[in-house]
Amino acid sequence: MKSFKYIERFFKYRSAIDIVSKLGKVDLKEINECYSMFVFLRNMPVYSNKDNVIVFDVGCGKRPTFSLMVAHFIKNWEFVAIDPNLEIKDYRTERLSCYKCKVEEFDFSKYTNRTKIGIYIHSHAPAINVFDYLFIMPCCIDNLPKNILGFFKIDTNIWYDKNKIYYYDLRRKV
Ligand SMILES: C[S@@+](CC[C@H](N)C(=O)[O-])C[C@H]1O[C@@H](n2cnc3c(N)ncnc32)[C@H](O)[C@@H]1O
């Protein structure tokens, strides 16, 4: 049976209706997966970094669901959504910017002194080597980084079998 724990938690936020109206669509599966990623991220040490953090939501799809949602929950981080299929419009969200391109085409040079987190939720994009931390919920292609130690958790609150989330601290270069 599907778990609605994350959906219930999400809609308890005062900003939930605002988030959904800015996205223009209620996709419960997407909200569930994005909330799952948020729960994982929130339990990692990088979550305590207060400033200078920028999150890249790579292969977000047509809408920047994860970055728009989490920009409402974490007030001092910046968010960048990147996808060649992304619908570019005014999402009325401070600290969120959107780019309709492949991640390989994106210019990361202006973010050199920032803590960069790459978030891949069922993304088909390659895990390029620019991030300090990577969080990947793989889809049908293998885009996990090679020769680097990471770990994963299985989140049974995700509704289908693509429910593993991998974490890599790339600063260690193990
Ligand atoms: C299965 S969809 C997942 C979309 C969304 N994250 C979701 O969970 O509903 C895979 C996405 O990866 C994107 N993608 C594929 N190659 C990419 C690349 N090189 N850079 C950025 N995004 C890419 C596609 O455009 C597509 O939106």
Report on the architecture of this protein.
- The chain has 174 residues and is of the alpha/beta class.
- The protein has helices spanning 5-12, 16-23, 28-42, 65-73, and strands at residues 53-58, 78-82, 96-99, 115-121, 133-137, 151-154, 164-169.
- A seven-stranded mixed beta sheet has the order 3-2-1-4-5-7-6, covered by helices on one side.
- Helix 4 links the parallel strand 1 and strand 2.
- Helix 2 runs antiparallel to helix 4 (65-73) and helix 3 (28-42) crosses helix 4 (65-73).
- The longest helix is centred in the N-terminal third of the chain and has 15 residues, at 28-42.
Q: What's a quick, concise take on this entry?
A:
The chain is of the alpha/beta class and 174 residues long. The protein is built from 4 helices and 7 strands, in the order αααβαββββββ. It has a 7-stranded mixed beta sheet with strand order 3-2-1-4-5-7-6, covered by helices on one side.
